[in-house]
Amino acid sequence: MGTTLEIRWHGRGGQGAKTAALLLGEALMEAGKYVQAFPEFGPERRGAPVQAFNRISDEPITIHSAIRQPQMVVVLDPSFLGTVDVLSGLQPGGILLVNTPRPPEWVREKLGLENFPFRICTLDASGIAKATLGRDIPNAPMLGAIARLTGLVSLEELLEQVRHRMEKKFSPRVIEGNLAAIRRAYEEVHTA
Length: 192
Known about the structure:
Layout: E1 4-12, H1 17-30, E2 34-41, E3 49-57, E4 72-75, E5 95-99, H2 104-110, E6 119-123, H3 125-133, H4 139-150, H5 155-166, H6 172-188, E7 190-191
Parallel strand pairs: 1-4, 4-5, 5-6
Antiparallel strand pairs: 1-3, 2-3, 6-7
């Protein structure tokens, strides 16, 4: 994927796209990477479409523009498939990661992708979040899938950084639920 990896997150307000981008950025920074993590908002309300972004490199990052041609697209809300151009700018050889209990082949059919020059991966992040947290907040499971798919950070490093960042704001029950979600997602992500 080159020296710099760019990720675009698609979600709705309340699904944690911004928080996930920031947590991933902090974990990768602690792992020795250079990182940018930033959101892009429209109307700032729960349920409104939002995008967040990560730029990750082994060298200092000197660009500060929007990400238009990501190597990875993460879709937290599967209802965006077919209604939002989530594939816009996705680079050949990149990864499309979608929160759905369905297999990657379903995404390919849903988007009409006969010949696709990238990997399609799926994860039931909502199901995992409901089982581990009791709420449909799919961002933490997606972090586990990203760690597995990219190899940018080990599972243990990611868990340690997420725990450290969450200790400032959340109860031990919420922290452990998120860590369990990340572990499960790391093991359960499907790829085609």
